[in-house]
Amino acid sequence: MEDLRKLVQIVTNRGQKTQPLLETKNKHVAKETELFLRIKKGELQTDEEAAAALYNCKPNDPRLKMLKSRLRKKLLNHLFFLDFSDSRLKVSLRYEQECLSLLHQGRTLMNEGEHKISGKLLQNTLKLATEAEFTSIIITCLELLLINYSLTVKPNLYYKTKKTLEQYRKLAAFEYEAEDLYYTAKMEQNKSVFAKRGFLPKLQKSLERLKELWETTKSANIFDYYYILDITKQELYGNFDEILKITTTSEKLLLKEKLNRKRFDVRYNIFITVYAYLRVKDYQSGLAFAEANMNAFNRSTNNWFAYMENYMLLAMHAGNYELAVKLFEDVTSNSFFKKIRVNAQERWTLYSSYLYFVNPTKNLLRQSSYRQLISSIPEYSKDKQGFNVAIMVLQFFYHVQARDTDLLGFLIESLKKYAGRHLRDNFSKRSLYFFKLLVVVVNANLDYQESLKKGKTFYERLQSTPVPGDAFAEIEIIPYEQLWIILLKILEDMDQ
Questions:
Q1: Which residues, other chains included, contact 66 with Cβ-Cβ below 8 Å and sequence gap of 6+?
Q2: How confident is the model over 456-488, as pLDDT tens digits?
Q3: Residue 185's CB: how many other CB atoms inside 10 A?
Q4: C-alpha distances in angstroms, 331 versus 245, 315, 321?
Q5: Using N-to-C axis directions, what is the helix angle for 342-358 and 388-401, rounded to 10°?
Q6: Is 479 helix (H, G, I), strand (E, B) or coil?
Q7: Can you tell me the distance from the alpha carbon of 105 to that of 27, in angstroms, rounded to the nearest whole number?
């Protein structure tokens, strides 16, 4: 009861005179609560709308400025009471937020001179932070406990804690080095394709150092940096077999308790494994793995939709169009589909259009923008890189079926122009060879036998050209080899 009495006294003495949080359940809501609710409902999008609705004034009115300031402060106060128990969140985030909350409480009580209560909170924080290997939080806890033990004259605990703190500060130095290597690499990977290629040799050196640091410390923080950058490197080089080795090794380390379960992102490991199966063309293993791990992701999250994209592409590449239709319907019937990013929705439109082309069903036609996609010529810009080829190829196939030689000639000129600008290096050779096959078809005037004969050399080159790393690849929604066979079948049927 003594602890509670002291807490009551602190809250009473330090409590704010005005309500620090929004109150949304009262019948008569405050003005800032009204602003909050109307923003939440989507009724107010701009300062102009808010000014007119709330005060019938201009946006620069001092009343609106003060109202926005009060609301901002209360919303920031609410950050202390967010719910991080949601299973959709990354597992480490839940533990980190719990540690930060306890740490804040312990520090506040220390500032109030309540060393006994704060000491207990800091010990609890230290225990949880140690289990989850949050080194920076551990160090802060130990530093505060040192002050606590000094002021309460506990020499044994003081010197024991001081020794532990020295060990964690040494560990932190290694982790700071690893952090610097990681975020430097991440920044370089957000630059242009040309810059990414130039950074690859440096990335290898960073990985070697990260591996050395992890083997020395066995730090969960350093392993995360090493694990993610290693996958990034293999992806950029197109070494997807190596990614499968990385994810399999990580899973084994986790089972052997050599990785921290409160830190390792199992869902990301599952996600990247499915993606790697797709890129190494092990479709059956990938489909089985994808089906077995679907419940790892919450259906309301962007991660679920991203996971389903790879699952869908696995089905498409495997030629299992019945499964692909099922997956597409599952995704588009999800009530959260309309809430995902617009570019993600556009990718699903493109997938469904390809699926409709190889498996024309009324349901797919109704749900996709197939005809709209066919009728539009894409703008070849950086933000659409990765889909320009896919769109043009689909348009080409459509006009072949329609025997529209005029538009095919126009498309070929567009293909040549695009190839000249964007497909001049080794990373885009697969797209370049496939483009040449399409040119062969037009030059052969859609004749099956001539296309088969004159396209043989380019087809063989296509088959011998590996899939490039993700950062440099145009998307093959259906592998080019399969598309060529489909195109030849269309030509053959037209000749009969």
A1: none
A2: 999 999 999 877 665 556 678 898 999 999 899
A3: 21
A4: 30, 14, 15
A5: 30
A6: coil
A7: 33
CB count, 10 Å around CB of 450? 15
**Residue type for position 474:** E
Burial 159-175 (b: 16+ CB within 10 A, else e): eebeebbeebeebbebb
- Token pair belonging to 279: 């890129």
Per-residue pLDDT averaged across 32-58, rounded?
Answer: 85
91, 92, 95, 96: CA torsion to nearest 10: -150
Alpha helices, DSSP H, located in 359-496: 362-367, 370-375, 388-401, 405-422, 429-443, 448-454, 456-464, 480-495
Token couple for 116: 């006994």
Question: How far is Cα 395 from Cα 391, in angstroms, rounded to an integer?
Answer: 6
Name the nearest CA neighbour of 311 among 328, 335, 295. 328
Query: Half-sphere exposure of 284 toward its Cβ, with a 13 Å CA cutoff?
Result: 0
Does residue 405 or residue 314 have the better pLDDT? 314
Burial (CB < 10 A; 0-12, 13-18, 19+), residue 394, is buried
Tokens of 244: 């499968």
Of 96, 90, 95, 117, the closest CA to residue 106 belongs to 117
- Which spans in 191-219 are helix H? 193-217
State the CB neighbour count (10 A cutoff) for residue 453.
12
Contact call for residues 64 and 54 (beta carbons, < 8 A): yes
Round to whole Å and give the CA distance between 33 and 21: 10
Report DSSP state, residue 152. Answer: T
Query: What is the Cα–Cα distance from 87 to 76, expressed in whole angstroms?
Result: 23
pLDDT above 70 for 86 = no
Helices (H) and strands (E) in the chain, counts: 24, 0
CA nearest to 235, candidates 187, 203, 192: 203
pTM for the predicted model, two decimal places? 0.82
| Whole-angstrom Cα Rg for the chain | 29
